[in-house]
Design brief:
Helices cover 9% and strands 47% of the residues. It is built from three helices and 41 strands. The radius of gyration is 24 Å and the shape is globular.
Length: 414
């Protein structure tokens, strides 16, 4: 009887210790302290008081487990919002500390403003607050949100992908001249956070038709970047475009915690060369679904991610902890991206699909834009969740644009 009573007391004591550790945020045997959820709001107007609702922090313990900790009693550093710019916030509790950034805007934009006029006036270092609203064309001829040029080193932040709804596209690192985009020299340091990008389209006679000022096809995607160094895109959503993010010759690319849905060709596509890129914790769903597209009388390469490489040596590219679902699925008949694709399908003798998947599709495609069997290294594909698709990973789109498979490390895929 005494032994049973002792065991009950011991159990109660252990539970009290565990509860105390959890609610105090002092996990036993903790070795580090890190953020799992950033605050709901990270952008402020000058003089506005920061609000850290939504912030979540946990410890990593010596046994490899994680423990969520409360913020009661935590020391959160004060931030001066009287000036614009990037501000670092430090969080300390016990012997552990971590930090995150918030931003104070130098330019505030509402959905009633002339967006192109505002962007033309930007200077290097500006922090742009794209406030909650519907940035949508008012008619089929309204180009207010089409091809918004970003040719300065700026940070653009919305109120969240569900609050700042942008029905248009950004052009990064290029200027519009005589109807064409010309790459500018030394484009760098552009951040785009917390915006919901959406483009509406309809299917008529099995053909894709975009609404608004975009015409029948979308050539530029939501974000089209030219020769840009240090481009960071985080916590955005992309829906309805031909391309989510399209880039030519990018160095220092970060694509993190974004959602890509109903993208007709490629969610992320680079041409020429890709260097020092991190594609991390994104969700890809219904990419290139039922879509037939052609390029130069052959079936287009479609899928979630397509990266091109032009240089030998270490590319410094990691694709990690992404989730892919229904890539290149064909479950309800073909949809033709444009008239040329429809004509191609009528004239070709090629097989356009294999079982329930569109041919020439893959979740991740890596290819050479230079010599065949390019000796590129330092490409890591790690702990990604590969869902339904014809092919998970491929290292070319034709017989003449292979990259050396020895330069690609694939670990712990599931």
């Amino acid at each position: 009887m005494k032994k049973i009573l002792f065991n009950k007391i011991g159990l109660i004591f252990a539970l009290l210790i565990s509860a105390t550790a959890l609610f105090s945020g002092c996990a036993m045997n903790a070795v580090s302290y890190h953020i799992t959820n950033f605050p709901n709001k990270i952008i402020y107007e000058i003089g506005e008081k920061p609000n850290y609702a939504g912030l979540k922090i946990e410890t990593t313990n010596s046994d490899g487990t994680n423990t969520m900790v409360g913020l009661n009693g935590a020391e959160i550093s004060k931030v001066d919002t009287s000036t614009s710019g990037e501000k670092k916030v430090f969080v300390k509790k016990g012997s552990f500390s971590t930090a995150f950034n918030i931003y104070v805007a130098s330019v505030v934009i509402n959905d009633s403003d002339d967006l192109k006029e505002k962007f033309q006036a930007l200077v290097d270092g500006d922090v742009v607050y794209l406030k909650a609203g519907n940035y949508v064309p008012k008619s089929s001829s309204d180009e207010s949100y089409k091809d918004i040029v970003i040719n300065k080193s700026v940070t653009i932040i919305g109120d969240g992908r569900g609050a700042t709804k942008f029905y248009g596209n950004f052009i990064v690192g290029a200027n519009l001249k005589n109807g064409n985009f010309e790459s500018m020299q030394n484009a760098k340091d552009v951040k785009i956070f917390n915006i919901g990008f959406k483009l509406n389209y309809a299917i008529k006679n099995n053909l894709v038709n975009y609404s608004g000022p975009y015409g029948k096809v979308d050539k530029n995607g939501a974000i089209n970047a030219f020769d840009t160094k240090n481009l960071s895109i985080k916590n955005c959503s992309f829906d309805g475009y031909a391309y989510g993010i399209l880039g030519n010759n990018l160095n220092g690319l970060t694509i993190e915690n974004n959602s890509f849905r109903n993208i007709l060709k490629n969610a992320i596509k680079t041409t020429q060369d890709t260097r020092n890129a991190s594609i991390y914790k994104n969700v890809f769903m219904d990419i290139a679904k039922n879509v037939i597209s052609s390029d130069n009388n052959s079936q287009s390469s479609l899928g979630a991610i397509e990266l091109a490489f032009a240089q030998k040596g270490n590319a410094g590219v990691i694709v990690c902890k992404n989730t892919f679902t229904r890539i290149g699925l064909c479950d309800s008949g073909f949809v033709f991206y444009d008239e040329a694709s429809k004509t191609f399908s009528e004239q070709t003798r090629e097989k356009l699909k294999t079982l329930s998947y569109i041919n020439n599709t893959a979740i991740i495609t890596l290819l050479s834009s230079a010599e065949n069997d390019l000796d590129v290294s330092g490409i890591i594909l790690s702990t990604n969740n590969y869902g339904q698709a014809l092919t998970n990973i491929r290292l070319n789109t034709t017989a003449s644009n292979n990259i050396d498979q020895n330069g690609v490390i694939v670990t712990e895929t599931y």
